[in-house]
């Protein structure tokens, strides 16, 4: 029935010593000849090679053509009967023809703006040649590319080059998903890195002619990443060459192919005029992420795709640590948790909930999720918290020593932590195998100098998982005295039962607890506390994350109450004023505190309390609170706005970026009072994209900015990456009364290149983030979205399926909206020839 089960895993019956590939590139008819040196592992068995959309031109065994009776060809592959195979080693050769120019799915070998490129993870290699396309089959690749294009690249080291061809050899055995090939008219920005042991590595960032002047930041990011991985994890790079190629048509962010990373061009190209501070930060983080995969993913890979979080969760944890260390410090945790809640908690609370290590799937591409990535990273972070910094490093050293060159499982990973620490992590493993976000409620008691915290954990059922046994939860707690001094420094309480108490003795007075410091576990903390106490923590907590969290809780509670008709809580308004005045806090931190929770987050919080969220009331509450804050603190906000202007040439560094963030956060509030006067002025004088697009967004949110939108399009019309911002700002921020019409107008203007995933995501992804617009009561938002998914699916199922997650919250809303959303989903489900990708998603969404 098309379902793949973890429990069905069987090792592949053949070893492959080596694969040699010859590509004769042509847009409509590329020929691929593959020669596999194979040996049966355990006696002769039927030999299955995966293959899809391949035109078979010939099969030969040890040099002799194979008779047609000896093999069967299906739509999913080629099987050679055991009876046709020799006892021992043999050489198998296939020749196929493929059409990269017709490949709109952007998986396998395809073309983008005249260049050839590949995307093989998870199962794209089977669209290039017949091969056991599974991560536990690792071998050495030799590649010959024949083409007249000037730059011909593959994995590993260049071993031959001449007129119309290049040959590459990768000395490191790898699974097929890490194979890559690029051919095109490309220009390199080059540099080098010398490893700790003295190996000089050549680095190239390859882009289309004309883009060379936007590569310096990516190159410097790569150098920083290489250095950090040596220092933090003792990991050196292992080839003499590292290539990164920017591609305009790409289904996701980037791909860690061995020695030849391929990137979505939006995550490489940056200049002050075209990229925002957030773009710079993401470019650095993704360059680091893909580079870090060289050890966590490539040298040690996954046994099967159920183990995806083994490489992704760990590598996200590593890139988050990198960004904290080289750029953002404590602010990084705040950003990551805000993102985790917005995406992963949302996923965990809906029909798409699944464990970081799922146990079944139809289409693996549907499992590159916030749960596998971000929650996977949280689980690694909890292991680091439980073992401490030294213990974590010891465990990772053991992981690399024990498993280098292998394809591993989550069981292997946990065993490494058990062996390095001597601890039993059996209960901890539930984090990997069960879905759902635990809710942790806390109560306190103080008597005779003894303070007791009692925790209770409950996880609601998720699809297919009615029972939720207690998890092992590391809870970092510190206690503050009434004057704000820290009376008990942070300690990690380990909760393993459903209900559990922890005591602190010898206290002079009842303390104020700071619980779940640094967000030490991905749980929802529920605590009956007063606004006054939250305000106290916002003012005094020594843990920067919990300081921010206290303000966030106040803001969220205020907004929830306002969405149900209340007026804003005075404690909150007061606390914001104090925070704004706190010059000891960095501008970046103050900006994070000024930003209010998004409408979707408020809706989720209401739904959790069994209140049916009203998108229009939520929007009104949020805008109302912004206006109230602006009125109350106008002088301070004007001070913050004017005082955090950054003079001089643009630098993407954290300090000026933090100032710009504060400036824009203050401006967002002030814009509710000045009819966009300041935003217009800032737009006119801005010399960097952060401020241009920030100001433009504020104008659009007020239903204004027509002149600025026109000016922006006139200036940037020829730059598709910049125009993506123009589209997404309008789709995301237009008022709900006009958002559907705005999106429709952009979509239907001939200029919208919807087949390019960046273009599609900028508009439809932006619209999905427009809470009140997408969830418009008459269902027009849902219908528009469904139309576009139906249109994209036959060309690019992967991106269509990914975008369908816009519907994952549909059951939260009122009956009318539910009826419209359900109708839209059913219309998608009923579409003839729907892809496996999108039909799996819609099936789960409809539950
Ligand atoms: N490993 C790739 C993602 C591949 C997605 C395939 N649908 C990028 C990354 O996580 O680094
Ligand atoms: Zn990754």
Automatic annotation (TrEMBL):
Catalytic activity: Release of an N-terminal amino acid, Xaa-|-Yaa- from a peptide, amide or arylamide. Xaa is preferably Ala, but may be most amino acids including Pro (slow action). When a terminal hydrophobic residue is followed by a prolyl residue, the two may be released as an intact Xaa-Pro dipeptide
Domain of life: Bacteria
Entry's Gene Ontology molecular function annotations: alanyl aminopeptidase activity; metallopeptidase activity; zinc ion binding
Cofactor(s) needed by this chain: Zn(2+)
Keywords, in A-Z order: Aminopeptidase, Hydrolase, Metal-binding, Metalloprotease, Protease, Zinc
One Gene Ontology term from the biological process aspect of the record: proteolysis
Pfam families reported for this sequence: DUF3458, DUF3458_C, Peptidase_M1, Peptidase_M1_N
Residues covered by the Aminopeptidase N-like N-terminal domain: 32-178
Peptidase M1 membrane alanine aminopeptidase domain boundaries: 217-428
EC number, as in UniProt: 3.4.11.2
Domain Peptidase M1 alanyl aminopeptidase C-terminal span(s) in chain numbering: 532-846
Domain Peptidase M1 alanyl aminopeptidase Ig-like fold: 436-527
Gene3D superfamilies in alphabetical order: 2.60.40.1840, 3.30.2010.30, Neutral Protease Domain 2 (1.10.390.10), Peptidase M1, alanyl aminopeptidase, C-terminal domain (1.25.50.10), tricorn interacting facor f3 domain (2.60.40.1730)
InterPro entries: Aminopeptidase_N-like_N (IPR045357), Aminopeptidase_N-like_N_sf (IPR042097), PepN_Ig-like_sf (IPR038438), Peptidase_M1 (IPR001930), Peptidase_M1_dom (IPR014782), Peptidase_M1_pepN (IPR012779), Peptidase_M1_pepN_C (IPR024601), Peptidase_M1_pepN_C_sf (IPR037144)
Family: Belongs to the peptidase M1 family.
NCBIfam families in alphabetical order: pepN_proteo (TIGR02414)
Name used for this protein in its record: Aminopeptidase N
């Amino acid at each position: 029935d098309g379902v793949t089960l973890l429990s069905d895993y069987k090792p592949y019956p053949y070893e492959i010593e080596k694969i040699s590939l010859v590509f004769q590139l042509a847009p409509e008819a590329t020929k691929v000849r593959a020669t596999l040196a194979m040996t049966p592992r355990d006696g002769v068995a039927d030999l299955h090679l995966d293959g899809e959309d391949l035109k078979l031109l010939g099969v030969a065994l040890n040099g002799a053509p194979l008779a047609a009776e000896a093999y069967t060809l299906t739509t999913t592959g080629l099987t050679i009967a055991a009876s046709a195979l020799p006892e021992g080693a043999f050489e198998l050769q296939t020749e196929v023809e493929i059409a990269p120019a017709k490949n709109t799915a952007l998986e396998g070998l395809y073309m983008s703006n005249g260049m050839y490129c590949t995307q093989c993870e998870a199962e794209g290699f089977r669209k290039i040649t017949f091969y056991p396309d599974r991560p536990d089959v690792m071998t050495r690749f030799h590649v010959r590319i024949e083409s007249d294009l000037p730059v011909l690249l593959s994995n590993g080291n260049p071993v031959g080059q001449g007129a119309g061809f290049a040959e590459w050899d990768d000395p490191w055995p790898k699974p097929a998903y890490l194979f890559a090939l690029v051919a095109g008219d490309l220009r390199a920005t080059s540099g080098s890195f010398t490893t700790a042991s003295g190996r000089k590595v050549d680095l190239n960032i390859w882009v289309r002619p004309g883009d060379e002047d936007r590569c310096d930041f990516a190159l410097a990011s790569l150098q920083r990443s290489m250095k950090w991985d040596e220092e933090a994890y003792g990991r050196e790079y292992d080839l003499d060459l590292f290539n990164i190629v920017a591609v305009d048509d790409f289904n996701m962010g980037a791909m860690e192919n061995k020695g030849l990373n391929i990137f979505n061009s939006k995550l490489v190209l940056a200049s002050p005029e075209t990229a925002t501070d957030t773009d710079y930060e993401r470019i650095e983080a993704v360059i680091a992420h893909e580079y870090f995969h060289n050890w966590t993913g490539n040298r040690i890979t996954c046994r099967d795709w159920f183990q995806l979080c083994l490489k992704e969760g760990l590598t996200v944890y590593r890139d988050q640590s990198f960004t904290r260390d080289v750029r953002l410090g404590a602010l990084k945790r705040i950003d990551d948790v805000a993102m985790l809640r917005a995406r992963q908690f949302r996923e965990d609370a809906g029909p798409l909930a699944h464990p970081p290590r799922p146990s079944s799937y139809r289409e693996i591409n549907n499992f590159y999720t916030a749960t596998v990535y971000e929650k996977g990273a949280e689980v690694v972070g909890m292991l680091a918290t439980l073992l401490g910094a030294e213990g974590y490093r010891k465990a990772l050293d053991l992981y690399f020593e024990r498993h280098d060159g292998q394809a591993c499982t989550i069981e292997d990973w946990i065993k490494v932590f058990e062996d390095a620490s001597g601890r039993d992590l059996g209960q901890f493993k539930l984090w990997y195998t069960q879905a759902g976000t635990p809710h942790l409620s806390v109560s306190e008691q103080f008597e005779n100098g003894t303070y007791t915290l009692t925790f209770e954990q409950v996880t609601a059922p998720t699809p297919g998982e009615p029972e939720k046994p207690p998890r092992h939860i590391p809870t970092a707690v510190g206690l503050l005295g009434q004057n704000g001094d820290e009376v008990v420094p942070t300690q990690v309480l380990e909760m393993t039962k459903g209900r559990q108490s922890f005591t602190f003795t010898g206290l002079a007075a009842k303390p104020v607890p700071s619980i779940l410091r640094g967000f030490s576990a991905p749980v929802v903390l529920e605590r009956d506390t007063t606004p006054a106490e939250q305000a106290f923590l916002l003012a005094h907590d020594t843990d920067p994350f919990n300081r921010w969290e206290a303000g966030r809780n106040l803001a969220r509670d205020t907004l929830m109450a306002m969405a149900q008709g209340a007026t804003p809580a005075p404690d909150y308004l007061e606390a914001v004023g104090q925070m704004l005045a706190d010059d000891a806090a960095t501008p970046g931190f103050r900006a994070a505190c000024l930003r209010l929770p998004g409408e979707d987050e408020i809706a989720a919080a209401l739904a959790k309390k069994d209140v049916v969220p009203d998108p229009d009331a939520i929007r009104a509450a949020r805008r109302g609170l912004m206006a109230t804050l602006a009125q109350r603190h106008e002088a301070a906000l004007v001070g913050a706005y004017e005082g955090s202007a950054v003079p001089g040439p643009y630098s993407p560094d954290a300090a000026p970026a933090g100032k710009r963030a504060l400036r824009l956060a203050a401006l967002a509030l002030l814009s509710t009072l000045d009819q966009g006067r300041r935003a217009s002025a800032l737009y006119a004088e801005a010399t960097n994209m952060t401020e241009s697009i920030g100001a433009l967004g504020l104008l659009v949110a007020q239903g204004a900015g027509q002149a600025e939108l026109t000016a922006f399009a006139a200036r940037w019309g020829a730059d598709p990456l910049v125009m993506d911002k123009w589209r997404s700002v309008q789709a995301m921020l237009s008022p709900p009364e006009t958002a559907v019409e705005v999106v429709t107008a952009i979509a239907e203007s001939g200029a919208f290149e919807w087949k390019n995933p960046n273009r599609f995501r900028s508009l439809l992804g932006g619209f999905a983030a427009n809470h009140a617009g997408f969830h418009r009561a008459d269902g027009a938002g849902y219908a528009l979205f469904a139309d576009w998914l139906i249109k994209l699916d036959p060309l690019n199922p992967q991106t269509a399926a990914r975008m369908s997650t816009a519907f994952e919250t549909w059951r939260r809303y009122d009956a009318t909206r539910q009826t419209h959303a359900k109708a839209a989903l059913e219309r998608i489900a009923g579409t003839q020839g729907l892809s496996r990708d999108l039909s799996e998603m819609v099936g789960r969404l409809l539950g």
